[in-house]
Each structure stands twice: as structure tokens, then as C-alpha cells.
Amino acid sequence: MSPLTRHRFFFLAFPCGWRELRPSWRELQPERRCQREVFGGQRYASGVRRLALASFMFAACNGGGSGMTVFSTSITTAPPESTASTSGETAGSTTTSSASGEDSTAGVSTASSTSSSSTSSGGIRDVGMVPDGGDGPPPGCKGKVDLLFTISSAKTMEGQQAKLKASFPGFVATLENEFADFDYHILSTNTFGSWVLPWCEGCGDVCAQTPEYPCTATLEPCDSVQGAGVTFPRGDNATNQRCDLTSGRRYIDTGQSSDLEHAFTCVASLGTNGADQVAEATVKAVADAINAPGGCNEGFLRPDALLVVVAIQDTGDQFSDGTAKDWRDALIDAKGGEADAVVLLVISTDVDDPAGLCGYDPPGVEHKLRTWTELMQPNARFGSICAGSYTDYFEAVAKMIKSQCEVFVPQ
Question: Which segments show compositional bias classed as Low complexity (predicted)?
Fold first, then answer.
């Protein structure tokens, strides 16, 4: 059997180890090499067309002249007693040989070839390491959630505020079960912008029209800023006292865990002597200036926390500045342009829906709060303010928070 015939036999039997078992390609007579170009410049023997066909079929190891590089992505199983090749050829390969112990190419090759940037004339260019597909799954929010409640304090909102406060304990319990390391900030937004009631201004001990109003209260500048966190609700059906927040800021944090329900009830009892511009108040609450050092909401928004907005109003909010798109953009901008970092729950009237709980009574104008919710899909939920309980809405949003937290990428 001629050397060429023997070489052909062993290539078909051992596609990745033939060079060590039989004379290497460069040991064959020079006249037996051909000038045909295969695989972008790799030259094979013109008299051995079956070798080229086998190379196409197996996508296996490629032989070459002196200095030729070899590249392969095949993976087989190597016997433990195999040793690494000492051949003059270099390898940039993830191949593991299944040949006998005599096969010097056995074992998993993880070498990063020093010849990756050089190729011989007619050789295959070394493409280097194959990308590994990234750095793994997103880090997630790790239980960090910034909860922003924007609650209308219009005169019709007493019952709706009561249903919100009744739903809150179950909502927090669900999140605590979902996140072993639940780390929250909770801020209730000032929707009105003015603390003093015009009919009680200058009162002494008691305001005749609103007896609960604290005439002698000591105020802070942020008490009268729309979008600022509320710490002193006032007026009819309000707390009418300064809420005791352990954070020392205008929001609740995890240091309040021992009396969280009491603290939330305090900041969420906004009363019914305010306004219903929940969207405008939300936009102002997440603005850069109010969250910057020295701002009323300093420290509330965290770059590594998911932002969850709960807006409650019994009308479509026709009086907030801007469009529903503006409101959507403000939330996304607050999280560095990451829409997946925001979850929105809107509880409002559904009179525009023939199947709504409030009764079908088309207002003839855009329901901007519903549009806002639609623009925030799929990370948003709309609920009817006429529902007997808001518990189901908060349970749905809790699941949404869990899902979004898993794909959250911190800024």
C-alpha cells in the first residue's frame, strides 16, 4: 500500500489524529500537493479528493504545510492516559479525542494559540475564542423596590383611600414572601402642593370649618411642594399629625418594619381637601431635582431598585400637565431609559368601558390614566376604582414585581 493510500485510510478512521499515526502532509512528496483552494485558502492534495469530501462531511481537523494552524470545534471523549501533542503545529481547539492512548491529541484543549494572529500562506485564519454568550442572567433587583403611591385627595376619595389602606398589609406580606431580602422605600406623594387650607388660614386653636385641622402645626418647606413625600397629611379625613418615620426622610424604609402598617396608614391618609392630579404629581415626584441631594425626596429613588408606581384617582385625570406619553416617558427616564425597571398600577374610573364596574358612561374625552397604563404595557395593570376591594389588583402587581425584578438591570 502506497504512503498516500495508507494516509487516506487512517484519515477516515481517525479524523483528528491521523497526522501522528502516519507521515504528516509535509512528509509527502511535494509534487503530490495541489493548488486547489478549499475553505477560503486551505490547500489539500489534488490527488486525494476523498480527503476534501471527508473534510466537508466531518468538519474536522484540517492539515497544512509548515506552520499551518488547525481549528476544530468537534468534541469527543478522551482516554485519561492520553498526553498532549508535541507536534510543531499549533491548535486553537476545543477538541477532545476518542482515539487510543497512542493518540497524542487526546484531552480537552483549551489553549489560546499564540499563532491566533498569524496564518501561513494558504492556511485557515484562526478566528480566536468563540463568544461565551454573555455574563449570565441579569443581577435582578435583589429585593430592592421603591414604591411610589400617588393618591388623589379630592373630596370624593374617602372610601377609596380606605380600600387602599385595607389592601396594603396583604400586598406587603406577599412581597415579603417573594423576596427574602425585601428592601423597600415607600413614598406617598403630595398631589395638591399647598398645605394650608384657605378657610383655616390664620386660625388660632381650632378651625371652625375643619375642626381636625392643626392650626398650630410647625411646618417644613417640603410640606407645600407638589410631588414631595407626605409626612403631615391635613384636613378632613386626614391624619392631621406629623408621621413618625424612622428614616428621617420623607419616605418609609425597612427600618420601619416593626410598625410598617401604622406608618403607611399615616402617610396614605391624605384626606379629602386636596387635588386629583395624580399623574402630574407622579412626574414631579420622580424628577431629578426633587431626588437630588437637598431635594425633598432625596434618597428615595435608588439606581439598583425597581420602581413601582401606584396611582389612584376616581376620574380620568384631565387636569394634570402633559400627555399620557409624557407621563410614560418621565417614569422611564427616571430609571435611565429602562422600561423594564418600572411597574405601574392605575386604579381609576372605568366608565369608558362597557363592561366596567362603575357603569358605562362615556365621558367624551380621553381617559388619560387608561392611556398611560396602555403605554406602559406589558409592565402595567389597570383596575376599577369601583371594585369592592383592591386586593386582587395588588396581588397581580406583586407577581409582576417579582417577574420584573428577575430581569432588572441596575443602572
Answer: 72-132
Tell me the whole-structure pTM to 2 decimals: 0.68
Taking alpha carbons only, the member of 123, 131, 119, 103 closest to residue 10 is 103
Nearest to 169 by CA among 273, 39, 56, 268: 268
Total residues found in the chain within this entry: 411
Instruction: Tell which residue, 280, 279, 267, 275, has the closest CA to residue 239.
Output: 267
HSE-up of 62 (CA within 13 Å, CB side)? 29
pLDDT tens-place string over residues 172-216? 999 999 998 999 999 999 999 999 999 999 999 999 999 999 999
Give domain 144-407's CATH number out of 3.30.9.100, 2.40.240.50, 3.40.50.410, 2.60.40.10.
Answer: 3.40.50.410
Query: Among candidates 314, 300, 411, which has minimal Cα distance to 359?
Result: 314
Distance between CA 320 and CA 317 in Å, rounded?
Answer: 6
